[in-house]
């Protein structure tokens, strides 16, 4: 697995041999092509970060800060190795749904989430991000999910874009702008 574009294009990433489903290159390219220049200078939070491919891709494309949140101690070792030496990267070991409380009102420009498939975490994560006001006024919430776990928008939110990549879907959401 490698970073697709930007300053760290071609950088190799380490992953455990099993137990993790890294976001595919084509999916990451689609996400960041959709976000365009909104990534430059952005404050980003990468939830269920895994090995960090999506968050590192954000740093590579100009994000100024990425907070990586991952619970698994085994996966965390790979994540720390992958972000070593990257300015603006901060790794936190925590349960995502609990940790989001600490981010209430954080005003991130971009929140990325790739929860384990088929664990009912897609809707819970979206609702918690919305309820705790983790995104700034013009922020985007990007969530990768299984085709059978399409998110339902909380009140005041809308899906800006959705795309299918095999069994995976990516939904980009934001609060309504009035």
From TrEMBL:
Database matches in CDD domains: AdoMet_MTases (cd02440)
Signal peptide stretch: none
InterPro entries according to UniProt: DNA_methylase_N6_adenine_CS (IPR002052), RNA_MeTrfase_RsmD (IPR004398), SAM-dependent_MTases_sf (IPR029063)
A Pfam family: Cons_hypoth95
GO BP terms in the entry: rRNA methylation
Record keywords: Methyltransferase, Transferase
Residues annotated as transmembrane: none
Record-level Gene Ontology MF annotations: methyltransferase activity; nucleic acid binding
Superkingdom of the source species: Bacteria
Keyword Methyltransferase: yes
NCBIfam families, per the entry: 16S rRNA (guanine(966)-N(2))-methyltransferase RsmD (TIGR00095)
The protein, known as: 16S rRNA (Guanine(966)-N(2))-methyltransferase RsmD
Species name: candidate division WOR-3 bacterium JGI_Cruoil_03_51_56
């Amino acid at each position: 697995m490698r970073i697709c574009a930007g300053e760290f294009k071609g950088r190799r990433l380490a992953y455990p041999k099993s137990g993790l489903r890294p976001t595919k290159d084509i999916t990451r390219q689609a996400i960041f092509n959709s976000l365009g220049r909104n990534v430059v200078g952005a404050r980003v939070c990468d939830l269920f970060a895994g090995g960090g491919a999506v968050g590192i891709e954000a740093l590579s494309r100009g994000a100024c800060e990425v907070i990586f949140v991952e619970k698994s101690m085994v996966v965390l070792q790979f994540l720390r190795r992958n972000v070593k030496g990257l300015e603006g990267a901060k790794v936190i070991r925590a349960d995502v749904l609990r940790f989001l409380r600490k981010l209430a009102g954080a005003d991130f420009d971009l929140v990325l989430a790739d929860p384990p498939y088929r664990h009912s975490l897609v809707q819970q994560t979206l609702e918690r991000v919305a309820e705790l006001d983790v995104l700034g006024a013009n922020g985007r919430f990007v969530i990768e999910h299984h085709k059978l776990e399409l998110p339902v928008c909380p009140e005041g939110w809308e899906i800006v874009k959705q795309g299918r990549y095999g069994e995976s879907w990516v939904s980009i959401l934001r609060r309504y702008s009035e």
